[in-house]
Design brief:
It is built from two helices and two strands. By secondary structure, it is mostly helical. It has one domain. It has a two-stranded antiparallel sheet. A hairpin with a 6-residue loop joins strand 1 and strand 2. Helix 1 packs across helix 2. The radius of gyration is 20 Å and the shape is elongated. The protein starts with 13 loop residues before the first helix and ends in a 5-residue tail after the last strand. It comes from Streptomyces coerulescens. This is Secreted protein.
Length: 77
Amino acid sequence: MPDTSEARGWKPSRTQKIVAVLLLLIVWTAVANSWTEKGCELPQGYVYVITHGGSPDRDQGCEDEPGGPVYTDQYYG
């Protein structure tokens, strides 16, 4: 009888899944931190990484407003 475990392919272990998630969070935090260098707060940076597809372009950032930093695509900071 043939061994069917090889036919199913590779399956990551629990440890490999945890390490992958931790690496993803580290990269996400690093990219979100690049938004803080453009005047945004870190929680905003996490959102902008997802909504704007990564780190800010040269003309993207946040400007100070009375209610806190606000996104702008005309950042010259």
